[in-house]
Amino acid sequence: MSRKESVMTSPHALAAREKIRADAAALDIDQAFIDRLVEEFYARVREHPRLGPIFNNAIHDWPDHLAKLKKFWASVALHSGSYSGRPMQAHLKVKDIEPAHFGEWLYLFEQTLRDLADDEEAVAYFMERAHRIGESLKLGLFFRP
């Protein structure tokens, strides 16, 4: 067993993962909710006047991409461990992204959440993570040494 595997299966790590999943479940966040969120959000992204062209030019197989995004968000929100991609590498290939697009993406993501979530805490749960992800991508894309 590798060091990473032993850390991920330590009693502390398992307890932390279970707490995250319990917190999400208490907010009615489960795989079905994540699937709806990803489908609805990216349908809106594809129609957005500024984000749509960027995404539609970069993504050629939407069903495959949506499946990856569902795994990504399940890993983020539920610690499912189902995603193993490299999002930074994928985003580095898209030359049309500008820093301002992250604010538009976050705004649209929050509006979608507000339309789908029954609870303000569920919106906050996802938005905290979305802000962290967006900031990480923005720093990696535009402010790399």
Automatic annotation (TrEMBL):
This is Bacterial-like globin family protein. One of its GO terms (molecular function) is metal ion binding. Pfam families: Bac_globin. Keywords: Heme, Iron, Metal-binding, Transport. SUPFAM superfamilies: Globin-like. It comes from Asticcacaulis biprosthecium C19. CDD domains: TrHb3_P. It comes from the Bacteria. InterPro entries: Globin-like_sf (IPR009050), Globin/Proto (IPR012292), Hemoglobin_trunc (IPR001486).
